[in-house]
Every structure is written in structure tokens, then in C-alpha cells.
Amino acid sequence: MSGNKFDAPAGISPLDQEKVLARPHPRKEGPLKVTGQATYAYEYSAEPELQGAAYGYLVGAGVARGQVKSIDTGAAEAMPGVLLVLTHGNMPQQGESETPVPQEDGATPQMPDPEVDYYHQAVAFVVAETFEQARAAAEALVIEYADQTPEGDYVLAEVMEDAEKAGSDEESKDQRVGDFAGAFGRADVQLDVTYTTPDQSHAMLEPHASLAVWDEAGEALTLYTSNQMVHWVQRGVAKTLQLQPSDVHIVSRYIGGGFGSKLMFYGDAVLSAVAARKLGRPVKCALTRPQIFNHTSHRPATIQRIRLGTDGDGRIHAIGHDSYSGNLPGGSAETASHQTKLLYAGENRLIRQRLSELHLPPGGSMRAPGEAVGMLALECAVDELAEKLEMDPIELRVLNDIGYDPEKGPQRPFSSRRLVDCLQRGAEAFGWERRSAQPGSVRDGEWLVGLGVASAFRSNQVKPSGATVRLEKGGKVTVETQMTDIGTGSYTILGQTAAEMLGVRLEDVEVRLGDSDFPKSSGSGGSWGANSAGTGVYYAADELRSKIAKAAGYDPKKAVFKDGEVWEDNKCTLLGVVAAKAPEPLEATVNATFGDLDKQYAQASFGAHFCEVGVHRVTGEIRVRRMLSVAAAGRIFNPVTARSQCLGGMTMGIGAALMEELHVDDHLGLFINHDLAEYHVPVHADIPDLDVIFLEELDDKSSPLKGKGVGELGICGVGAAVANAVYNASGVRIRNYPLTVDKVL
Ligand code: MOS
What we know:
Layout: E1 2-6, H1 30-34, E2 54-60, E3 66-72, H2 74-77, E4 82-87, E5 115-116, E6 122-128, H3 131-139, E7 142-147, H4 156-166, E8 175-177, H5 180-186, E9 189-197, E10 209-214, E11 221-225, H6 230-241, E12 248-251, H7 267-279, E13 283-286, H8 289-295, E14 302-310, E15 316-327, E16 348-357, H9 371-389, H10 393-399, H11 419-430, E17 443-444, E18 447-459, E19 465-471, E20 477-480, H12 490-502, E21 509-512, H13 529-551, E22 560-562, E23 565-568, E24 571-574, H14 575-581, E25 586-594, H15 597-600, E26 604-616, E27 622-632, H16 639-658, E28 664-665, E29 670-671, E30 690-694, H17 718-730, H18 741-744
Parallel strand pairs: 1-25, 2-13, 11-12, 15-16, 20-21, 27-30
Antiparallel strand pairs: 2-6, 3-5, 3-7, 4-6, 8-16, 9-14, 10-11, 10-13, 14-15, 17-18, 18-26, 19-20, 19-25, 22-23, 23-24, 26-27, 28-29
Helix pairs in contact: 9-17, 12-13, 16-17
Organism: Deinococcus proteolyticus (strain ATCC 35074 / DSM 20540 / JCM 6276 / NBRC 101906 / NCIMB 13154 / VKM Ac-1939 / CCM 2703 / MRP)
InterPro entries: Ald_Oxase/Xan_DH_a/b, Ald_Oxase/Xan_DH_a/b_sf, Ald_Oxase/xanthine_DH-like, AldOxase/xan_DH_MoCoBD1, AldOxase/xan_DH_MoCoBD2, AldOxase/xan_DH_Mopterin-bd_sf
Protein name: Xanthine dehydrogenase
């Protein structure tokens, strides 16, 4: 495998022709999904070695803290069809972890001992011939606990003071510039407000599911599992089961949504693997919906204090953002103040995040971890500041725009930043001039109508990513990479990238993903997938172009690829002919890495969200009436799939603003609304016409594709635009999300 490092601004490349890339292609795998032909992890059955898979049923702890004192498995084991009951008593030796929170680089042991760290942590795993038998036997287990559930350390507000004293690692991440306290004290206009956001659940469609099968010797594992990060789960499962990563084969071809919950792996994966090895037959497990809510991760609640100090003209001179969140020991903080380090000007800055110990289930990444909830607070605070200043909220944002990292100064400019254009273009398209600055002054029958705006910001990240691109004998092209498609469009845009580079049609490219046998890839997370995995495909295709040109007898520097042919001046050869004549397979495998352009340039995607709501004068009901997002995220590789990402983000942002909330039972230490009947997410009837505009942008410092992340940008700021519209409609400012009817009235 060769390597290719992206460490200087991208020059002109064949991608700039945009014959296939940046065009609106429907999803390659869409027809397979809607006709039920896409096989998900739990569904594999055709392969001979998968015949007769047994069903595993996970049993979660019934207390939030303590120890399992005893498990009587007798009755369960005697039930029809039961093959095995796993408990801490008969688990094999596993790799150790210092924290019950799954880590990207570590073992995630299940039931290594009788300790219970959180509610619905696995305490048993029942395997039977059918799902129903396994579930029935699980209910017949008699489990006694030494219950050490304490009162009170499940609620963030009750533990946040610990964080102040802690002097934790978090302090090293503070942004401290100038004299915040002095400047804030002297400011002509001061705003000091605290917002809260609740725990949230990813609520993806497909549950976490795994199907494990071992080779005959019981030495090598194949794990079909719904996971965003093939190389993380491969390494993590290997560490957990004390295997070599090369003895763990991961298959994750289709994923019914992840939103960050499937960055890590859980009991379904580890316990299916352990049971399958013991039984010498395949075992599969899908978590039930209630288990997903407490056994897997969630987005942690935050308490955020924002302080803004300006001069009389609205120029920010002091900007402060403190974010508090909690997690199990060893877990990480929700980085909700992160964007405030980069989004607005201000020469005196104090930006911090603090972490408390909280014994809820593990907190983890959920779509745009940090910004998604950070912007809920910051962008409402900016709206509050605009009102104090009697300024238009867009004008205030434009005034405080900054083209470089406010901490490092002009020597660290943004690689690209069209925030102001997004705000202004959106204002025009949405009819912002019709907004009344006076809250509660616009009526439509029984509805009070208001408009709201928010900026959008999501950091742009890139990760090493490899790919193989091959020219097949018939002239078709195959792309292989460990990259996953979590519903985002990876199959399609990676096919477009290869097609553009090799001058073929998209339908002539087969894209194969989600298999650890392929080159290691960035995986899907943090909005880095498209740009990173695309870069791997780009470099591999570039190397393949040289090989094809040489095989055709042309000068690689002069070769042009178009219409399924390779050209030099006025000579050309069909790619299929080149492949047929080549003595060796024409393929290239390249691992793309990234240099330090992200240190030289601050990198983020930008946007602006506009929302119109109606608030019912009598009932307080809030209806979103229309919404527009404008995004500037570098080259948009496919306007259809990118638009879908934005629509999904906007829908999720509306949910965050108006309904999503995990309710903490502070006696039992669990989330009690653990199903989709009681954890509310928007349904079609909640979502009106949504519109998306992409601004033209090529970011040549981000990747050779000149794109930036877009998948998470769509949610960042949305909820604040909704909340600001609710305030504009009703005059009611709600600082604790979600904005439910009881808070409006
Ligand atoms: Mo994302 S929350 O990194 O899948």
C-alpha cells in the first residue's frame, strides 16, 4: 500500500470538472434498502456457516449501582430451547477497562465481575433456539443485588459544584484570552444567562445488533455488526476478547442510522461473540428499544452559563461560556462551549467546560457532540443580546464576525468562512425583513407568529483513510474501503469520486464498504467521513490513472480520462481493452493521511438557520411553520445526499428544541422514558416545508476534494432558531430545553 499525505492547499484536479461529482445522483444503494434487499447485521442467513444461528437476549441490571449477589439460572436453563446462560460467573477472561464508558481505543468488557456501574449494564445473556424462548428464559432468571443506589448523584444540577472544585483535566482546555472579568465588568451592555439542555437519545431506526460466528477451531471471529467505525470495533473487540485484530473480521455493510451511538460497541457484540464461541454455532442479538436507552450511550445534559459584554454599538469585548456536564468515572465531558472559542470576535475570552461524576448510563457522542447543544445556548444568548442592544440579530452577528481564530490571531485564518454570506443570503430568501422586532406583535388568527435566526457552526475534521480502486477486465471500476454508510450517502459519493477521476459513469463503479478486509478508513463520525474517505479514494484513483496510462502506452502526465476511455492527444483506448491486455490486475491501494493544515488554518463549516413558528395564544402549542438552512461546507459532493443530511439535521434540531428529553429518575438512577412512545422525536406531522440552500465554496485547505463536513452542520443552531422564533412570536424566553407547552404558558 502506498501513502499520500495532504499537506499543501489542493491544486486543480480532475475532480474540478464536476462531471459526476457535485451532481445530484440518487443513492446507489437506495433501491436495495427500499426493497428489503440490503442485508443488515441481524439478518444474515444465506451463508452456510450462518445456518442455525441461535438467539441471544441481553439482561440489563435492575439497579443503577451495586453488585450482583446471586443469579439463580436453574429455572431458565430448564426452559425449552435454552442453550446457554452467561453471567459474570462463566465469562471468559477479558481485556480490562478502567471505565464503564466505552472508549474508542479500548476493551469494553461485559460482565467481567459482579459490579454494576449503571442501570441496564449487562448482567446476563440468555441464548436459545428462538428469540421468544431466550426472552422468556431471561425473565425467569432470579437476580439478587446488593443495591448501592445512592440518592442524588443522577442529577447534573446537584453535582455540578463538584466540577468547580475538581481542578480536573478540563482546565487545560480552557480558552483564556485578555482580561475577561475586567472587560465584562466595564462593558456598556452585559448579558449573563444560563441555559440547560437535557439528556438526549440517538433514537436511530435500526437497533444495535450483532451476529457472531467463529471458524471451526474457535480461533477467528466474524462479527456482523451495526457499527460506524470498522477499525475501532475490530480493535476494541480484539482487545476485549484478547485476540489479535487480524482474527476479528468485522462486516458492517448497511447501518440503519447511528448518530454517534454506533461509534462504540456494546453487549450485543461482545456477548454474542462469547456465546457463539462456547456453543460452536452462530449467535445473534439485537438490543430491545428500552435497552438501547439505558444500556448504550446518550448525549449528556448540560448547564451552560454565557456572559457577553459589548460596547454601545454591539461590538463584543468580553465573551464567556461555561459548560457543565456529567459522566460515569472515566467518561468525557460534553464539549458544549467548544464553538464559542472560534465563532465570534472579542478580545477578552473565558471559555471553559467542566465535568462531574454522574452515575447515569454512559454519556457519549451524539450528532455534532458539543456544538449541537452548545449552539442551543450560545445562539439564544446572542438573540437576547441583540434585543438588549435594540439591534437586528443578524446585524449583531455580522458585526462580530471574525476571519481568524480569535485566540491565535490573524496568523491562523479560517480555511474558508462564509458565515456572513449565509446569514445575508438566508435573510433575503426567507423574507427576514418581514420580522417585527416587537415580540408578540404578529398574529394569524389564534396564532402568534414569529421569526428566528441562528448561526450554524461545526468544526471540520479529517482522519486518515485508505481505499483500493481497481479497473476490472470488462472496464468497470471497483472501490473497496472499510468506510461505512450510516444512511449518509457514502456508497454514492465515493462512487462519484472514482467515476470522476477515471472518466466513467457512476453506474460503472461498484462500491464495497463496511468490511475490515478492505483498507482501513476514517469511518463515519464527526462529519469527517465524506471528505476523509473520499480523499482515500481520490489518491487511489489517481495512482490507478498512472497505471492505466502506462499499461495503455501513454504518458501518465498527459493522459486524459473521459467517456470510459483513456486519451493521449488524439489517441485513445477503451478502459476495458486496457484492462483485458494488462498482464497484472490494474489496481491501486493508497492510505491517505493529512498534515497540519488544520493547525495552520482554523477549519469549520458554517451556515445560518431561519425559522418561522406559530405559538397558539390559548394552548401554548408551538408549530414550526417553515424553515430554511443555508450552508457553506466546501464542495458539496452530492446535492441530493447533502440536502438529505441537512433536512435530517433540521428535523433533529426541531426535536431538540421542542420535545426531545430523557427524564432522569433520580431515585432509581435511570432514564424512565426508554421507548419511542415516551421519548418524543418529531414525526411527519411536526415538520413543515424545510428548505436548504448550499452556497458555492471550494476549500482547498481541507482536502484534495475541497469539501468540508456537512452531516452534522445541519443540526447545529437549528434549535436556537426555533427558540428565538418562539420568543419573537410570544415574548416568552425559555432557557431550559425542550420548549414544552408547560413552559410557554
Ligand atoms: Mo458522530 S456523533 O461523531 O457519529
